[in-house]
Structure to design on (787 residues):
């Protein structure tokens, strides 16, 4: 697994989730950035043009499903892959996420290997 | 054929139009054809009263709900309108092949000679291939005639005595006249005394009606004949002139009696009408205020019994069998087989039955179906006492009463159903919210724990784990595990308090006691704040459950630490008053906006938020409120002058330590 030099943005309001994501992705060599609100996430996305976005659906200021298309539209030429990371596992939510352009959907809790496998697949 | 024709039913404001709608709907279902309802609005529509127009609107809405297409057309004449509509329909894709019309039953003598609308229509449409079905609509089922306006024959002795007395007075007046004028003049004018007697008849008829008038007239006639015509003191007539006079007198008295009777009856019926409409209004007002079916039935029953002076009963289908009909109010009535038969005919055939109708007459009861736009909801029954003669207005009154009762009962039924389904929906929503919130609050810390530990393991395996990273990961996992624990405890506490599993044990204690032990327990949490305890200058004791109150104080102090900047002061003020005792906790955080001050105590409000930072804490305040209120206390939240949040926990039972010593 090699995420060397890849910019990854995680948007999640739970600091403890961001902590272990940071530790693990740094360890894999990625350039990791974190945001805990939709607003902050959108701002960072515009600034960084990340190679991949990890998105939680239950954000305090906006539903992740609404933020998803906005993230995709930040750059005209480059639509970053988005991995959804959430406790929600209803069929309707999963379908809606894929319809709005999600590239992968992982429900919490999860083992870090599962996430890294998906990231590898989507980036490389 | 199917799909290329339709069944059309023509309606007007007739109260039993529902029968037509039902007939049309069932034929449409049988023949698998679409059906429609036609209402022809003529200039008469605007002359119709408000009630009739409202009724038509109700029928149309109801039909639409049943799946009918509504046609509302205008024409100068109903027949013309229907004719035009049916004729035009043959130019469209759905010609009217089957037309249903109602026919009112023929009530009066003249109705027999009048061609009904239905028959006219059959004649008009005979050239069209449309099949016309005429459905008889029974209305009151009672033939009313001119004699209905006359009073009931009632031979009260008093009235007859009055009539005879009036004749006696007339005789007295005549005799007075005779003794006071010269003989010669009396002879010339003797026939004029008839005027005295006529006056007696007029007064009797106007005062006591036809019978009194007639008695007075005949007695007057006899008196004149006996005393004032030749041969005197004999009931016979000698002169043609006298015969003529007396015949005219008799004719005039008869006429006056009838007129007086009619006039009196009209007057009485006006008074009766006025009384009835007042009573109807009163019933409507009273019963409309009822919020529950049995209450409404009780009011209707009481008022109607008083108004009609008859036994009144309400019948409705039992919940288990919507086709049957049973007594719902009052508890008991005396019924024989004929009565029951009549009731069942009324219910099954949706028509007025019983005494004074054309159906099931062998009963003293009269039954009227309770109709609402969606169909028949019950039956009202009246036991008619033997001495009461039913007139046509009784039938109308009964229909009006039944309509009113039905609409009141329907409204209650609807309201009832609405609140039931609303409650179910609300409960379902809450359940779903609770489930998703709990799963979110449980899963987020779990995800952090599992995630952190899986990262730990992976890095450990590849031998890249440095001690700082290892600490960071284990600290995260540990604190998330503790958060999970506190969240689960909170949920369990809440459940136990709400279900009453926790019993409260109140004891008299020093208010410093719980505060001290909480401060000790939260030592680490409060290490970066300055907790100041302000106590009253005299010693008091309060009656509380120590363990539970400690938990409340802990929740609130914990919140204060969490939401106010490090280094600031948290004040815990103990305040004793005459009527109670309060703990007041003030912090120097941002405070809580006005609009959220109630909702922070609401456990469901907590569920609407997905913010993981406060997981479990929102419930903490809901628990605090539940605990305080179980001890008859109050919890109150405001922002104090300096801006931070201020919680007040109030307990009603307080005493000074001295008091206890005296005791």
């Amino acid at each position: 697994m090699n995420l060397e030099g890849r910019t990854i943005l995680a948007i999640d309001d739970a600091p403890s989730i961001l902590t272990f994501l940071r530790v693990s992705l740094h360890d894999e060599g990625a350039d990791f950035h974190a945001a805990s609100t939709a607003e902050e996430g959108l701002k960072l996305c515009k600034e960084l043009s990340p190679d991949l976005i990890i998105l939680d659906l239950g954000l305090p200021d906006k539903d992740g499903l609404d933020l998803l298309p906005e993230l995709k539209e930040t750059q005209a030429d480059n639509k970053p892959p988005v991995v959804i990371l959430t406790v929600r596992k209803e069929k309707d939510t999963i379908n809606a996420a894929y319809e709005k352009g999600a590239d992968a959907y992982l429900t919490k809790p999860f083992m870090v290997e599962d996430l890294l496998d998906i990231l590898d697949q989507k980036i490389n | 054929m199917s799909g290329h024709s339709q069944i059309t039913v023509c309606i007007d404001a007739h109260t039993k139009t529902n029968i037509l709608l039902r007939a049309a709907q069932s034929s449409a279902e049988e023949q698998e054809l679409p059906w429609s309802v036609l209402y022809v609005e003529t200039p008469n529509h605007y002359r119709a009263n408000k009630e009739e127009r409202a009724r038509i609107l109700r029928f149309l809405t109801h039909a639409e709900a049943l799946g009918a297409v509504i046609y509302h057309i205008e024409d100068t004449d109903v027949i013309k309108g229907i004719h035009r509509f049916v004729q035009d329909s043959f130019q469209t894709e759905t010609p009217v092949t089957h037309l249903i019309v109602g026919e009112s039953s023929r009530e009066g003598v003249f109705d027999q000679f009048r061609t009904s609308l239905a028959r006219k229509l059959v004649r008009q449409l005979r050239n069209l291939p449309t099949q016309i079905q005429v459905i008889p609509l029974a209305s009151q089922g009672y033939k009313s005639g001119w004699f209905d306006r006359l009073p009931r024959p009632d031979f009260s002795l008093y009235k007859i005595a009055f009539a005879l007395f009036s004749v006696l007075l007339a005789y007295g007046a005549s005799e007075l006249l005779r003794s006071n004028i010269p003989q010669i003049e009396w002879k010339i004018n003797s026939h004029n005394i008839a005027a005295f007697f006529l006056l007696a008849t007029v007064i009797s008829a106007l005062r006591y009606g036809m019978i009194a008038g007639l008695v007075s007239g005949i007695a007057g006639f006899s008196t004149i004949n006996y005393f004032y015509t030749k041969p005197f003191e004999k009931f016979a007539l000698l002169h043609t002139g006298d015969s003529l006079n007396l015949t005219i007198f008799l004719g005039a008295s008869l006429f006056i009696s009838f007129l007086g009777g009619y006039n009196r009856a009209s007057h009485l019926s006006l008074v009766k009408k006025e009384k009835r409409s007042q009573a109807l209004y009163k019933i409507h007002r009273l019963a409309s205020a009822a919020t529950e079916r049995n209450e409404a039935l009780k009011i209707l029953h009481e008022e109607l019994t008083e108004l009609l002076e008859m036994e009144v009963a309400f019948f409705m289908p039992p919940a288990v069998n919507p086709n049957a009909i049973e007594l719902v109010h009052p508890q008991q009535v005396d019924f024989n087989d004929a009565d029951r038969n009549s009731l069942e005919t009324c219910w099954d055939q949706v028509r007025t039955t019983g005494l004074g109708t054309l159906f099931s007459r062998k009963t003293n009861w009269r039954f009227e179906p309770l109709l609402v736009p969606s169909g028949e909801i019950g039956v009202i029954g009246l036991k008619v006492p033997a001495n009461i003669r039913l007139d046509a207005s009784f039938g109308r009154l009964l229909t009006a009463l039944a309509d009113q009762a039905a609409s009141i009962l329907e409204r209650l039924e609807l309201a009832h159903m609405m609140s039931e389904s609303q409650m179910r929906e609300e409960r379902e929503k809450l359940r779903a919210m609770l489930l998703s919130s709990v799963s979110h609050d449980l899963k987020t810390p779990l995800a952090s724990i599992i995630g952190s530990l899986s990262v730990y393991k992976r890095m450990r395996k590849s031998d890249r784990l440095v001690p700082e990273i290892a600490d960071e990961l284990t600290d995260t996992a540990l604190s998330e595990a503790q958060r999970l624990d506190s969240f689960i405890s909170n949920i369990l506490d809440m459940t136990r308090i709400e279900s009453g599993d926790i019993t409260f044990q109140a004891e008299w204690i020093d208010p410093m006691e719980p505060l001290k032990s909480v401060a000790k327990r939260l030592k680490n949490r409060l290490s970066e704040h300055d907790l100041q305890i302000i106590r009253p200058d005299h010693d008091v004791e309060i009656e509380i459950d120590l363990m539970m109150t400690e938990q409340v104080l802990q929740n609130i102090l914990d919140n204060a630490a969490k939401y106010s900047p490090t280094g600031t002061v948290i004040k815990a003020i103990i305040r004793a008053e005459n009527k109670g005792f309060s703990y007041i906790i003030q912090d120097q955080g941002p405070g809580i906006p006005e609009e959220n001050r109630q909702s922070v105590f609401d456990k469901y409000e907590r569920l609407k938020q997905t913010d993981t930072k406060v997981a479990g804490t929102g419930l903490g305040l809901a628990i605090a409120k539940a605990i305080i209120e179980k001890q008859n206390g109050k919890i109150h939240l405001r922002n104090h002058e300096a801006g931070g949040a201020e919680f007040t926990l109030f307990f009603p039972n307080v005493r000074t330590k001295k008091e206890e010593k005296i005791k």
Notes: Residues 392-461 of chain B form the longest helix (70 residues). The domain at 6-139 of chain B is CATH 3.40.50.620 (Rossmann fold).
